What we know:
This protein has helices at 39-44, 106-112, 115-126, 141-153, 165-173, 187-194, 210-218, 237-249, 268-276, and strands spanning 2-5, 14-17, 27-36, 55-63, 75-79, 87-91, 97-99, 133-137, 157-161, 178-180, 200-205, 220-228, 259-264, 284-288. It has two domains: 2-113 and 254-288, Quinone Oxidoreductase, Chain A, domain 1, CATH 3.90.180.10; 116-228, 3-Layer(aba) Sandwich (Rossmann fold), CATH 3.40.50. It is of the alpha/beta class and 305 residues long. The strands form three sheets. Strands 3, 4, 5, 6, 7, 13 and 14 form a seven-stranded mixed β-sheet that branches.
Amino acid sequence: MKAFALRRPGEPPALVERPVPRPGPGEVLVRTTAALICVWDGHTAAAAPSGLGHEAVGVVEAVGGGVCPSYVGRRVGVEGHGRLAEYFRAPAAGAGLVPLPDTVSDHQALYAAGALPTGFAAAEEAAPAPGGSIAIFGQGTVGLSATVAAGRLLGARVIAVEPEMKRQRLALRFGADVVVDPAYEDTAERLLELTGGAGADCAIVATPSPGAARAARAGTAEGAKVTYARCRPPRGRGERLARALHLIGDGLVEPTVMTTHEFPFHRVGEAFTRLGTREPGMIKPIILFPRPAGPQQQTETGDPR
């Protein structure tokens, strides 16, 4: 099988050939059907020699010992690492593997496996009061997900801070009440103006821009909480994924509008490079996997199956 991983330290990741893994006790083997990549993959490449990618959906192809055979054939959404591969192993329970309902497409489910839970968790950590104001810096997939959660689920007044026009429009579509453009406005002054001089009640920083953290502190009320969106800890991962799927299935969130580019798996390296250089207009690329004839007749040890 092919996997997108580091070949040698210091080199960019690339497609490599690896044996199809064998699921161990309590594990399933998933055939990947689609995946997303994000800029975070670039930051973690050196620490993830086993493979990149943490947002994937697929179909269970085989199960290990102690796992009910009925798992085989199920569509599943999966969080974790090393998901940019034609096949990967995952724990059958307790680590973010959730069966996908028929009401949710593979494309939609990809966001439930990554960006949506991360944005939701950031919004809940910031904890804006209903009707209170929250400034959300950066409207990439995580920032947009935080915008949905803060505005539509928590009832806050969302002030989105984003310089790129496409992302500004999506922020308004995702529930932002107003958008501040830091390329043309002094963000902190604008936040004070929009809040009657008091400053925003809290803020989320969902961008690596060095000026965002400074503006967040200057544009919020004294003692206000500033939350930094990041990959969430494993605890509660499956619950967050399941909740995002529920919101998508009920039509409260349509995340696929955040997808701006589509690549077949053999061009994943190109997608990774273009996203890493922050190509204008690119928010989230989806990677589509071909349907193979079947798992290669080889395990991790190279033994015939």
